[in-house]
Amino acid sequence: MRNYWKSHDFRTLDDGLIEVFIDHARHIPDPQTEIAFVQLGGAVSGVAHTATAYTHRDAQFVVNVHGRWADPARDAACIGWARELFKAATPFATGGVYVNFLTQEEQERVHAAYGENYARLVALKNKYDPSNLFSVNQNIRPDV
User: Fold this and answer.
1) Residue 109 to residues 5, 15, 45, 75, 113: CA-CA distances in angstroms?
2) Quick one: what percent of the chain has pLDDT higher than 70?
């Protein structure tokens, strides 16, 4: 299977955002593709923003646009659909994102994934991995 995903955090599900998802759901490019909503809150929101690397404790929803298909000839259509939905939903999003939902092309969003905790994580990276040996994921780069 081929996969491509995009993700946003949201504090609310505004009517305009719901319309964006309904419109794009009408044009899902493959039966394997999904728009996954996860409701947060509860225990997630009961932890201080700086207690762990994950800082977006005020997000109430995570939406993961998961393009999935088998035929490589469908790459452009499926990836394009996910990117269009992501772009249309951006005005409603917090700017935060869960790091495991980032694609390789989104290295610039790593800072957004960690928010106010990013500088602390860079300091840890500087101390324990200044040569950036561990760099095959959504990497926090050392600045030394």
Assistant:
1) 14, 26, 22, 23, 6
2) 100
Domains of the chain listed by start with CATH number: 2-118 (3.40.462.20)
Kind and range of the H or E element at 3?
Answer: strand 2-10
Tell me the pLDDT tens digit for each residue of 50-67. 999 989 999 999 999 999
Type of residue at 99: V
Separation between Cα atoms, residue 41 and residue 7, nearest integer Å = 18
Residue-wise pLDDT for 111-140, tens only, equals: 999 999 999 999 999 999 999 999 888 889
C-alpha 131/C-alpha 144 separation (Å) is 9
Reported confidence tier of residue 103, pLDDT bands at 50, 70, 90: confident
Instruction: Give the largest CA-CA distance in the chain.
Output: 49
Helices (H) and strands (E) in the chain, counts: 4, 3
List, edge to edge, every strand of the sheet that includes 61-69.
2-10, 61-69, 34-39
Tell which residue, 44, 86, 124, 56, has the closest CA to residue 143.
Answer: 124
